[in-house]
Amino acid sequence: MKDVIIVDKQDITRIGMETLVSDTKKASSVQIADSKGDLIKILASVPDAVVILDYTLSDFGSVDELMNVGYRFSQSRWLLFSDELSYDFLRRLIMSSESFSIVLKSCELDEINMGLLHIFRGERFICGRVTNQLLQSQKPMTESLDHILTVTEKEILKEIALGRTTKEIASNRNLSFHTIITHRKNIFRKLEVNNVHEAIKYAMRAGLVDLAEYYI
User: Fold this and answer.
1) Which Pfam families has this protein been placed in (predicted)?
2) What does the alpha-carbon distance between residue 130 and residue 136 come to, in Å, rounded to a whole number?
3) Which of the two ends of the chain, N or C, has the fewest CB atoms closer than 10 A to its terminal CB?
4) pLDDT: is 34 or 214 the higher one?
5) What does the pLDDT read at residue 61?
6) Residue 70 C-alpha from the chain's centroid
7) pLDDT of residue 208 exceeding 80
8) CB–CB of 3/29 below 8 Å?
């Protein structure tokens, strides 16, 4: 059983979602938050809650604000139940955190219910419309990386993803420790990621590291 927090300013969809959550028989409580501030206050008391958020009507100013709250309450699971979301927003969110699931309000009822069941099981769910949007809009990530990172930065990113330490990378490339640190900072800045875990996921999605090679 999970505590659930719903953040949705549309009465009809909020009431509908409350009903769907109740029908799952998996919610120990359902609380309503009117703003980001209210949500954070509730999460402070139930940090492992399931959050159902209409991002498009919320007072979150950016995807970074949203992810920061997600990182702060890392035990929480999130279902974004919103209208259409931009490709850039979806790409950043999906690549940066496994805590966020996405279902659009235009989805069929069966798919909305499927999303709820997945999130109560602690599993990520991305609805078909969002998946199709990403597949249709996304340029190959290897091509995107060619425009973002230098050849050296891509090589260092691959080494990071393969689990090599900064000291090992510096030794292998006959460079100073501080030079590799600078490259690392530049890679993180250019990819708009905050830590090694996010950088590794980016490298794997870009095809820089083969999954079999990663798990050796």
Assistant:
1) GerE
2) 10
3) C
4) 34
5) 85
6) 9
7) no
8) yes
What φ, ψ does residue 28 adopt, rounded to 5°? -80, -25
Averaged pLDDT, 141-158: 76
Mean pLDDT of the chain: 85
Coil, helix or strand at residue 102: strand
Parallel, antiparallel or unpaired: strands 2-7 and 77-82: unpaired
Gyration radius of the chain over CA positions: 20
| CB-CB contact of 70 with 101 (8 Å) | no
Angle at 14 between CA 11 and CA 15, to 5 degrees: 85
Q: Which residue has the higher pLDDT, 7 or 197?
A: 7
Structure token digits, residue 20: 């769907």
Which backbone phi and psi does 141 adopt, to 5 degrees?
-65, -30
Residue with tokens 């919103």: 82
Phi and psi at residue 34, to the nearest 5°: -95, -15
Q: Which of 158, 98, 151 is nearest to 126 (CA)?
A: 98
> Residue 81's beta-bridge partner residues?
103
Q: Is the pLDDT of residue 216 over 50?
A: no
Cα-to-chain-centroid distance, residue 4: 19
Q: What sign does the CA torsion over 56, 61, 67, 68 have?
A: negative
Above 60 in pLDDT, residue 110? Answer: yes
